[in-house]
């Protein structure tokens, strides 16, 4: 027996040695190829066609995604995003109706790959009793596995994670391996001009369960990104992240930005009037934040953060995607107080920015808006009729819509509170890492809740010649600024060009609105929503400044709708009728589709079950797009600190 | 030198040989069970923990903790291992592995992994990949590219009227209604056309014949269109050098799947399976 054993072991050892010697990838070669292909792509004079992507996707390298059961890795995620058919973890065939143009895989930097390692670790070598218990739960059943991850998230927010998961030095070696092989995979799938994988991760700062998460996203390929490691979020603070970003750029000549998300779960902490340590906001901090965080995720699976009825009582469309999420912080360990809403929703944050700018001379919240999924299934789905769930525990099944979905606990939030996720629309001049990154830096981006409507938005003072005929876009670029840009007050009212074309395979449009926020003479923050273009304008007359509802064609029994109402395209040139000289203001566009079925209704019809009363009340919605704002203010402030690549 | 190279090549070819993978995988399995001391026989109540076993435990500890275990630690590791082994055998004796979905799935995954693992890291030669490309060019062909003119109408009747005047020789450019869609598309891929005009619109381009004439009305998500399809290029295959990476990815993914399938088929063939309907 011993002899056979010896021979067997020798064969294995020899085989392993041979593999090790001859095989193995060469990431430098991949990086050089990617750079070459990138250089061959034609860059247009100005953005011609909008690019669609997801900046926030988790794979089995994320500590929680793996615990929730996901077994699909980055490669499957990339294949799926570029349009391939893949098999989901639960064995369902998954494919996008239309491919995405780019993808940021944003696995949690904390414990990158750690749950996968914990799961695979020999049980006897796990010393920590908590880790050992989680290990056992993960092996016991999918439900127990989810409970383990719920405990893990709570422990992370309480700062009570086992030492083995906290200590960056123990983690570093493991992290480096996973990160570098991940970066090589990204380069392998990079097809400049066609499909762009972008390096990034999620930085998971969460004091007391209040969500201050950011997606960190790089402009660069393997040659630069392999020189850094994902920055841990637990126990950190935001200035620490900014320091890390500064250091990366200095050391490599690369570029990096951060995208806050789920401010709706921060219990008022994401967009504070003060600095994080409670001290007054300084101009230096404000400038730094605006430069480091040029865009914010406005909408995703865990709710929509654009507006809340508490803050915008006169906006009848303000409540989209708020139900459930408004109850408290991420793990629901602390309920939300009314006073906290203002630090959570983007419209209010944009207003606060104006006020801070008035006091300090710098606006920390001068950000653009994008949507993303935050899916933990490796599948970047955002279509209502193709929703693969927040995590593997709620991939398509007959129960997920009505179920309590509160990360293992049984209070507050339900499956139907999840949105199907959104996408980031980017006006880049070409589909490359550099062009997508630069478009985000100049905030020429917008958010949608999933549908791919094409939205153009320009601000200026002389758009009188705009006729929406063939070459109006180049004229608009010449005479004004696109979304994300800034205008200097010259005493006259600003003009805006808005053009919204429906998703070619989706629903017609109900209306286009311009949301304005400003500070009035005595420094009070104000907002107003203007309906500027809508379908059937001849028959749907605006009454007291409000356009009547578009109607509803949704058939609840079949989860279908018709495009008999609404319009395929809405366009207008609009001048602010209420502008006064010297006003500090922002304007952004909100486009509303006609009502369509939500994923919950598609589920109910497909699986043949009845939605709960609450879920049914929320089973039809008007999907939407939010553009980045255009700001106007005193001319003296000079350009943004960061408008161009170095 | 020549000889060494030759040897290396042979070794390299051997490494790629599925049969060798099976032998190695089989050896690994055998070694595993041999070392486990026939745990599959729950009746055995004899356990000998050899020097080698203890050395292995010590090595694993060292890999994790970056230092060798103390004697006390090694004793405790041995005790933990022994405890688990005894409970494991008793569990098998009680049949606790039966009907456990996690155990079942985990073991099945291990089998799959064994059969496919070599393909994960293997580096195929250019020759292999060229052959791969030659055998299935359609997978690497560029998308079909379309060149066409189109006119947009909000209603079908308007489109029909415009088609009539086109047929009587009117200039086309002034006929359609305004919408933010390009009137002309040059060499646009299927994906690009779908992104801009929608899936329904693109599908109709494949059925338009003959080329160069105005046809319609064709429906889309926006309304109605008259289309003059000028060119439809079914995709060409780019030269190998340009798409080597892509071919390699495809080869790897497919080889992985094939090996899993092949390994499974070998096992499957040894079973008599009846599915009662």
Automatic annotation (TrEMBL), chain A:
Q: What is this protein's name?
A: DUF3604 domain-containing protein
Species of the source: Pontixanthobacter luteolus
InterPro entries referenced in this protein's UniProt entry, alphabetically: DUF3604
Quote the Gene3D superfamilies the UniProt record gives: Metal-dependent hydrolases
- One matching Pfam family: DUF3604
| Domain of life where this protein originates | Bacteria
